[in-house]
Structure formats: structure tokens, C-alpha cells
């Protein structure tokens, strides 16, 4: 018998959680927290503490808005969009304030070679130093795979502006990391 997809389980848990079942929401949390945190960690400029706060805020908002979930998309898609919106509102609220760069001790040990880990760390720091809107466009487009139309809708900018911000972010990364980047 083929395994039941997580989306099928999501449906039951979503309905139960929308009716106030905290255990169902805990199951949804456990299933989706990794993807949500990963996206928010990148959008927060690799700031672990900020990403944790944003993840908590996203799940609190999801709990509050769950009774209004219309099932027009999967719960995972809805939650992911909600979480990204939480991060984008945080970026807007912070304006162009510089992002705190993480220390080596906050980076997870992924079993990488020291050379690869150093390159990854350098890239994360460079992304973290990008202006907030350029960073958001870069992360959403190049890492999360969003289309410029969707980025424009989410960030309240024209498609051309999204493309220009992506170009700017890439130029700044090349300048920071060297021309071979």
C-alpha cells in the first residue's frame, strides 16, 4: 500500500486545528517548522535569533488565522506564504538598518569540509549584509525559486523593480565575494 501523503494528513489536522485542537496544530508545526525556519533564516540575513522569533511569530499568526483558511492551496503553501509575509513585514519595519552578522559558533555543523564551510559562511555573511529589499528579492528568487511576478506582489513592487533589485543584489555579492563569484 502506498504511503499516505503529508498533504492528506494535513487536511485532517488543519480542520481539527481550525476548530481549536492544539495537538493537531502541534503536528502541523512539527511537520512544517523546518521549511518555515529555513526560509525565514535566509530572509533574516542568517540571524538565528531573529529567524527563531520570526518563526514563532509566523506560527502564532497561523494559529490565529487558521479558522479563515479557505483550502484554496495546500496548508504548507499557505503557511509558507504567511511566514514569508511575517519576515517581509519585519524587513519593512526595520527599514535599511544593518543586519547583524552571525558568528561562526551559530552556524550549524553540516559535516562540510573546512573550505566549503568557510565559503558558505562567507556567502551567508555577504547575503546578510545586502540591503533588506535586495536580500529579500535574492532569497525569494534565487534560493526559494519564486517568480518575479510573485515577488512583486508580495513586496508591493513592480516586476521590473524586482528584477532590478535582483540584479543589484547579485552585483553587490560579486563585489563582496570577488569577480569569480
UniProtKB/TrEMBL annotation:
Q: Which residues form the RNA polymerase sigma factor 70 region 4 type domain?
A: 121-173
Alphabetical keyword list: Sigma factor, Transcription, Transcription regulation
Tagged with keyword Protease: no
| Domain RNA polymerase sigma-70 region as annotated: residue spans | 28-95
Q: Does the keyword Protein transport apply?
A: no
Q: Name one GO molecular function term.
A: sigma factor activity
Record-level GO BP terms: DNA-templated transcription initiation
Lineage, top-rank taxon, reads Bacteria
Q: What is any Pfam family matched here? A: Sigma70_r4_2
- InterPro entries the UniProt entry points to: RNA_pol_sigma-70-like, RNA_pol_sigma-70_dom, RNA_pol_sigma70_r2, RNA_pol_sigma70_r4_t2, RNA_pol_sigma_r2, RNA_pol_sigma_r3/r4-like, WH-like_DNA-bd_sf
Q: Which family does it belong to?
A: Belongs to the sigma-70 factor family. ECF subfamily.
What is the official name of this protein in its record? RNA polymerase sigma factor
Gene source species: Rhodanobacter sp. FW102-FHT14D07
Taxonomic placement: Bacteria, Pseudomonadati, Pseudomonadota, Gammaproteobacteria, Lysobacterales
Amino acid at each position: 500500500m502506498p504511503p499516505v501523503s503529508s498533504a492528506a494528513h494535513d487536511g485532517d489536522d488543519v480542520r481539527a486545528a481550525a476548530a481549536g485542537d492544539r495537538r493537531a496544530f502541534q503536528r502541523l508545526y512539527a511537520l512544517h517548522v523546518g521549511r518555515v525556519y529555513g526560509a525565514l533564516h535566509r530572509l533574516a540575513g542568517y540571524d538565528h535569533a531573529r529567524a527563531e522569533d520570526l518563526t514563532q511569530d509566523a506560527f502564532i499568526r497561523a494559529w490565529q488565522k487558521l479558522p479563515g483558511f479557505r483550502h484554496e492551496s495546500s496548508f504548507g503553501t499557505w503557511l509558507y506564504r504567511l511566514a514569508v509575509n511575517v519576515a517581509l513585514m519585519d524587513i519593512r519595519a526595520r527599514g535599511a538598518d544593518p543586519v547583524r552578522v552571525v558568528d561562526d559558533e551559530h552556524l550549524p555543523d553540516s559535516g562540510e569540509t573546512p573550505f566549503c564551510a568557510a565559503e558558505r559562511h562567507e556567502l551567508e555573511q555577504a547575503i546578510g549584509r545586502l540591503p533588506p529589499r535586495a536580500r529579500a528579492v535574492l532569497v525569494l528568487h534565487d534560493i526559494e525559486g519564486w517568480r518575479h511576478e510573485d515577488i512583486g506582489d508580495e513586496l508591493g513592487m513592480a516586476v521590473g523593480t524586482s528584477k532590478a533589485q535582483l540584479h543589484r543584489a547579485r552585483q553587490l555579492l560579486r563585489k563582496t565575494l570577488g569577480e569569480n563569484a
